[in-house]
Amino acid sequence: MIASITNIASTSTITALPDSALQDINVITDGDYSSVYTDTLAGQVTITFVFPAEIYVGYIAIGGSNIAKKDSIQVTTSNEPEPIYWQTVSSEQLVSNDPFDLTVSLGGTVDDSQLGKNESNVLMYKVDTAGVRRVTVIVKGTGQISIAEIAIGEYYEIPRGEQSGYNRPWTVPNIKARSAVGLNNSPINLSYESRSLKCVLTVPNNIIRDFDGWYNFINFAANNTFYILEDGDKTHSYAGFNAVPAMTKAHAQTRSLGVSTINFNAFAKSTEALF
Amino acid sequence: MTIKENFKQSHFVVYELVLPYCTVCTPVGDLTEAWHTPVTCEESSDSEYSLFFTRNAAPIMSPPSTAIGIKSQLNSSVWRCVSSASESTARLKPGEGMASRGTMSLTMTDFEGDPGPINFSEDGTFFGKLKARNVLDGKKIITHYYTITPESETPVEVSASTHFIEKATLTKGKFSISAKDALKDLEAFSQQFPIPTEAKLTVDIDDVTTTIPVDDGSLFTAEDVIIIDKELMRIQSINVNNLTVYTRGSEYQAVDTTTIYKTNTNNHTIDSTVQICYVMSKTFLSNVLQDIFNAVGLSAYVDFTQWDDEISDWNENAFLYGVFHSPTEADELINHLLTDYMIDMWLDQPIQKAVVSATTAWKQSIRTITEENDLSDLRTSTSANTRFSRAYIYNKKDFQAENEDETNYSQLTLHKDITTESSDLYGSIKVKEFEPSNFITPDSAFILVSRYVQRFARTPEELSFKMEERKLANSRIGDVVDIVTRDSQTPSGEFLQARIRSQLIEIKPNLNGVGRMYDVKALSYVPLIASTPGGDLTIFISGTVFDVNLYARAGAPPEPLNVTFVFDECTIGSTANNVPSIRAGAFDAASVIKLIFTNSSKVSARGGDGGDASVTNSRFAGAATTTNATDGGDIYQSDGIESELYLNYGTVDTYVTDCEMYAAGGGGGSSAATTYVTDDPAGVSVGVATSGGGGSGIPSGSAGALSGFVGELESPPDIQTGQDGTFNGGGIGATATNFATQTIGTAPPVTATAQADSSSGDGRWGLDGGFSTATTTAIEGTKQTDFVSISNAGLAGGAIKGANVTVFNLAAEASKFRDGNSDSYVLITV
Fold this sequence. Notes:
A: Jelly Rolls, B: mainly beta, 55 strands, about 40% strand
């Protein structure tokens, strides 16, 4: 399980192709799901982050997004600040309708997969790549696309041994429903809205010797929207917010361990109707 | 039937705050940065931008529309900071005019951010900066209600409501807004109508002069009606600052000769205010309302077509006569107008127009709402003093500028429902008193009181219940619906059968919790149309009544039905010879009217007046003149509606019929004669004038007027007045003879005689008025000039006019019915 502890997406120069006439792509770096970059896909959209210097990318997270409903996604990293095609492709290729003519990456492919799932509104990748100058996210499909945030930064590996019974927010939709009923208690209407999932992450055997990692995590979490990825599946992830870290308590048996807890709200997935 | 995408829904609400901004900004005062809002710039605003807010529970989204017309982060932002919100829609007050204003309130949590619109700062908080950069009072806030169904990707805007901020506060990080709908300007302290005229008299004036000097003549136009103190005047022409008015104290009439106002004259002192009045000269109610809205700056909210259609549907003769002379709070005036015509008005949020709906028990249901499927949590309550078995209003005020004392009104219009007052039902009288009305016509006054009693004679129940948004569908405030509940059962105990006819008076969205529920309130009433066409209705009329319009008395029913009118101990007449005492009016042609006369009712119409006569100097032409007598009025005009009149026909529907119905008599003719006879050199003149008797009727006709001028008549003229008529007897006309002899010097005497006789007929019991004769004779001498004038007698009125009338009057009671000059009708005598 990894959790984000930095987000340096806002230090990059961000472009969207095609770009919206009215919306500012920079709103996707702020962790604020109030600001949502929205556009209508006509084939694909390419969002590129170019960093002023080489950086280490531990994770890439796409939050508050309906990307999972689209056809496919490509996430790549590169140490080239500009796409290669600017240097090598012919003018005919520049006007090509085939995006594969134009998108050549020198970096690693983080993801290149079919999508089409409705449920997950948060996608997180463990990248672990150094020397990155450029991150590219390409989403293919049609219809409206919404992205509240793309976060890029370093992560913290949550120490193993989290308590059993730990809530896994990505396993449930963020909804609550109610049916109005008729005189015989039969449903006559169903309506629902989203809700917050309350989470408690407890690490009962936190090694105090390595406490800086945990501290960095809770410090970042208390100030930002953060992301957690449980395993290698990008959809087994969620965004955390409203974090309330508790003081680490001394272990009952040894002072070299601590019992650390953080409370937060999570957002992972909604139903199709809510997104 | 429900289909999937409607059954399952998610709802959310987005609040849009619309603010002005300046595309070019020169910072004001000490500001060093340009914030592009009117408060912070020297320039005026030239565009608008929007800020969008919602709750955390709303789906993640972009703004539902462009926030600002440039590339901006605002176009991506819907701030999820709303912590609580509520909206109260307008609530109808049936029978009391304007609905309450719709209101909304919104509380949001402040956060680190910037409201723009062009430049953004890292410091401070969103709402702190919003308040510093803008004046929020009066700004528009729009509540967008959205629904998403599983099959749709794009939310559907179900409805939107617009309010204007009255108060915006930021306290301890909570930003609170309260706002009202656009008709807030029709509230106390807001607007006056007529608009006060800022003009004064510049000199003292007496009560005769027609030149009115004012300090600013440009404020006036010819034909304006003005008021100074309590005197009304009408401007004939304007010369700079001098207004020339028509003869002071003259009556002003509409084109149909109905009095608009009468006025007394007075002296007025310098500096008295000269106020322009609003004149209603057969002006339709919708036009009056429109004029008021326009004058007070609310023209954007006028939906004239809807007003005109709805009002004319329910009272096609809603014409007003009179003047509004004193600036009055516009809301008060509109309330008075709406109340007097049983019209509800409210702001319809989707179209952002003021709309009207007639409050009447005749309205038909447009949908059925059942407890089984549509509503939940039904509660029923009644309130004291919501039942009224009688209603009355003082109306007809000729001297419009006089105060509102009831003594300044000449009519009291009353309607009562004695059935509900009986001990079998409610057992008590409850009276609704309307404010005296200086503009309502008698017919509209009857429609008002009868409709009010029809609507409220039985205690209305207030039903409150909850409805999901999908179940509410397109139902709107003002709709008339049938509500079917488990509690409303038939006498045999069948539930979900009985229908409660109700009008939806409030539909308030409940914005808390899952989904969107609406709290609905409805007011029940007993519908006047039965489920089958031709339902029955009985209306009682008693006392002395004139010019009865049965259609108006029935509350102007829009559909065919059977109506029984019981005239109980009535005296029934007409105010003018050309107005029937009772007329059916504009009933649907398939209606059937039954008139039962009981308890010694007396029925007639205005009797004809006798002819006038005048005699003057017989040496000149025109020395003897007469005017024709007038005809008697008609009693019943059926207007083609099938009518049954029970006069004296035993017991009918439990009422013992008993009345006298006499067609009005015509006025008697008059005559005048004069002659001048000479036998040189001497001459002699004589003259006579007799007036005709008045015809019988209610009121009976008056004898003709007479005048005589002695002049060079050698003998004073003999002037004889006929008699006034009575209810069942005509006045006898007069007779007159004049005789004169004169001898001058040695010449033979000159002798002349004039005679006139108007006594040949008496215009009683439905008879025509009698004719007159007149003669002149020269006994000695030669006639030089000779004048004789004889007027026509008046014709009797008819008891029955119009088609499809049957009169029931036993043969033994034949003497109690004189039909005069009636149209054909069927008489049943056995």
